[in-house]
Design goal:
With 657 residues, the chain is α/β, with parallel strands linked by helices. It has 23 helices and 19 strands. Strand 8, helix 11 and strand 9 form a beta-alpha-beta unit. 33% of the residues are buried. Bound molecules: ligand C2E and calcium ion (2 copies).
Length: 657
């Protein structure tokens, strides 16, 4: 529309300039040229006017009107260019000068009209004019008059000027006419209107711009909130795992190899606090821990909560001239754990939490964040295995062990299906050398790594939950084995190791009863060996299960006695009929002299009506000493190592023979 208006304004100004120059023309030929140029412009002005008008009025089919105007006026324009005196005249004569009202005298020309072409031209002009009038009327009727009031005013002015020109013509054509000037009115009027329109648009644009700006600010705020949510822990407000991951990534990607460390803290037995005191207390404890670590962290360090009760501290740079980075990290860790273990008041509780920590020095051997996290996890695992409440720095040999562990973990799943487990039997003799029973000990014959000790794979089986299937398997095999023993040993017992995890399960009692029923084993010949750890979790639950099985005929033995933390009080509560003295005590047995400690253990056991089995007996001296102390039975390499079923049978035959 603005382009159309620009073209129209340009054409009108040239047209008016030509109209004015006609009064200055000195000769007929100049007047003829000017008249021709004026009509040429007329042929251009009307289509351009229609173009502008239809766009301004917002006509839907504006293109059609413009094309119609071009089709009508173009032939006339061509004819006009080919006519010597313009298409309107066949000749032009000069008239006496015209004296204007203010006394100025100007040239005046009269043309001899070409009736047909003049008629055609004015018919087209009038049609354009009428079209504009019709458009205005229609728009006014459709309530859009406000848009076209300026055009309406122009049309009235144009009509008035045209009528005036007709009157002047009627009176001999001598006098001033203003019909051409109506164009000027159109241009001026529309300039004003469009200017205001543009101003309004500018204002609207400024408002939209402001709105856009505030919307952008709002969005930025929301994005910042979302980013904060995505990178922070909602409970403690600390950065989260995501944040730590990116920070470590940036540190690893940095070309400057600055000394640093990643420390992973894990609260000991947090689950117990959560379960015993409720999640609200647990949450408050986590917040308290978060505050303490943040306060104790050196400047520039980043503290994050990785999830659950795991907190990470990234120290980089770690500058200390007197100690190595690992030493510095360990010192800082110890300072923090010392702070953390001070009692924390939450509600009515004074809570003391133990903390285990793993430390991975940076830049270490790890090249990516996942490896760093794995290293620090390994160190933490070690700290926990070492009895918790301690800090361990990652060392590369841990990686090899972790790799082996992973290998075993994977292999363990397949081992059951592939039948790689074997149960071996280690005999037990009484002090007179009579066979009284055997302990079933599990072996894993790995296709690549050979025989693997249960000490290595049982903890993995316990952690992965595979111990339940493995335990059932051992139970089954041991029960079947019992039935194969010669009738001479009809009273001999088989001892089966039971992991605390097996004892914790609800269906433990049921599984055992079902197994003895299906294998037709006599439960009175089965001793279940349990360790003291089985009572740490829930002494009463364990005791009730043991009682239920005792009622069914099973007997229980307390394994590895002396290496754990069983209190004498709980020992009294437990319906256990046998006590196994741990190998470590037998190793330290002072040869030839009475070991007071073992003597005390045996005395307590006998006092509680328990029999005593010493395990790990390797020498005759140890056996004699134990006999002197009143021990009831021995098990160990002195008698025999654990043997596969067939070898065990041969051993029994040799004993009888
Ligand atoms: P444990 O119950 O204390 O078993 C005794 C361990 O001492 C056995 O090791 C046995 O081979 C070893 N031993 C026996 N006599 C001697 C000796 O004179 N000298 C020395 N140095 N060692 C001796 P093993 O078979 O490697 O078993 C290790 C542990 O694995 C067992 O300790 C037991 O806690 C666990 N375990 C073994 N089989 C099973 C099982 O079927 N289920 C469960 N849950 N644990 C098992
Ligand atoms: Ca045992
Ligand atoms: Ca033992």
């Amino acid at each position: 529309m603005y382009l159309a208006f620009g073209c129209l304004s340009l054409l009108v100004s040239v047209y008016l300039a030509l109209a004015a120059s006609l009064y200055q023309a000195e000769s007929i030929s100049t007047a003829a040229a000017l008249a021709r140029a004026e009509i040429t412009l007329g042929c251009l002005i009307y289509p351009t006017g229609i173009w502008f008008f239809s766009l301004y009025a917002g006509l839907v089919h504006w293109r059609r009107w413009v094309i119609a105007a071009v089709v009508i006026f173009t032939p006339m324009l061509l004819i006009n260019l080919g006519s010597p005196y313009s298409m309107l005249y066949t000749g032009i004569t000069m008239r006496p000068p015209l004296v204007l009202p203010w006394g100025e005298s100007v040239h005046d020309f009269a043309g001899t009209e070409a009736p047909v072409l003049t008629g055609l031209y004015y018919a087209a002009v009038d049609a354009s004019f009428l079209w504009a009038v019709c458009c205005c009327v229609l728009l006014w009727r459709h309530g859009r008059g406000a848009r076209v009031w300026s055009l309406t005013l122009y049309l009235i002015l144009q009509a008035t000027a045209s009528v005036h020109a007709e009157m002047v013509n009627y009176h001999g054509g001598r006098g001033l006419t203003f019909d051409s000037l109506a164009f000027l009115a159109l241009v001026l009027l529309m300039s004003g209107v469009l200017r205001r329109e543009l101003q309004r648009r500018n204002q609207a644009l400024a408002v939209s711009l402001d709105e856009l700006r505030s919307e952008t600010l709002r969005r930025e705020g929301v994005e910042a909130d979302l980013r904060h949510l995505a990178y922070h822990d909602h409970l403690t407000g600390l950065p989260n795992r995501h944040f730590m991951h990116e920070r470590l990534q940036a540190a690893l990607a940095s070309t400057e190899q600055v000394d640093g460390a990643l420390i992973l803290f894990d609260l000991d037995h947090f689950k117990t606090i959560n379960e015993a005191l409720g999640h609200d207390v647990g949450d408050e404890l986590l917040k308290g821990v978060a505050t303490r670590i943040s306060e104790a962290a050196p400047p520039g360090a980043c503290v994050a909560r990785l999830g659950g009760d795991e907190f990470a501290l990234h120290l980089q740079p770690l500058i200390d001239n007197n100690e190595s980075p690992a030493q510095a990290a360990l010192r800082i860790t110890q300072e923090i754990t010392a702070r953390l273990t001070a009692p924390l008041r939450i509600g009515n509780h004074d809570l003391v939490v133990g903390v285990s920590a793993g430390i991975a020095p940076l830049p270490g051997t790890a090249r990516d964040v996942d490896s760093v996290l794995r290293q620090v996890d390994m160190a933490l695992y070690r700290a926990k295995a070492a009895g918790r409440h301690t800090a361990v720095v990652f060392e590369s040999e841990m990686q090899a062990q972790a790799d082996r562990r992973l290998l075993l973990e994977k292999g363990l799943r397949l081992a059951l299906d592939r039948g790689e487990f074997e149960v071996h039997y280690q005999p037990q003799l009484d002090m007179q050398g009579r066979f009284v029973g055997a302990e079933a000990l599990l072996r894993w014959r790995h296709p690549e790594h050979g025989l693997i000790d249960p000490d290595e794979f049982i903890p993995i089986a316990e952690e992965t939950g595979l111990i339940h299937r493995i335990g059932r398997d051992v139970l089954q095999q041991a029960c079947l084995e019992l039935e194969t023993w010669p009738a001479a040993h009809a009273k001999a017992r088989i001892s089966i190791n039971v992991s605390p995890w097996q004892l914790f399960t609800q269906d433990f009692v049921h599984t055992l009863q079902e197994t003895v029923a299906s294998t037709q084993a006599d439960p009175r010949r089965i001793t279940l060996e349990i360790t003291e750890n089985a009572f740490l979790h829930d002494l009463d639950d364990a005791a009730s299960k043991i009682r239920a099985l005792e009622a069914a005929g099973f007997q229980f033995s307390l394994d590895d006695f002396g290496s754990g933390y069983t209190s004498l009080e709980s020992l009294k509560k437990l319906p256990v009929s046998e006590l196994k003295i741990d190998r470590t005590f037998i190793e330290g047995l002072h040869l030839g002299s009475h070991d007071r400690f073992i003597e005390a253990m045996i005395a307590i056991a006998h006092h509680l009506k328990m029999s005593v089995v010493a395990e790990g007996v390797e020498t005759e001296e140890q056996r004699t000493a134990l006999a002197g102390l009143g021990c009831n039975a021995i098990q160990g390499y002195l008698v025999s190592p654990a043997l596969p079923s067939a070898a065990f049978h041969s051993w029994l035959e040799r004993l009888a023979g």
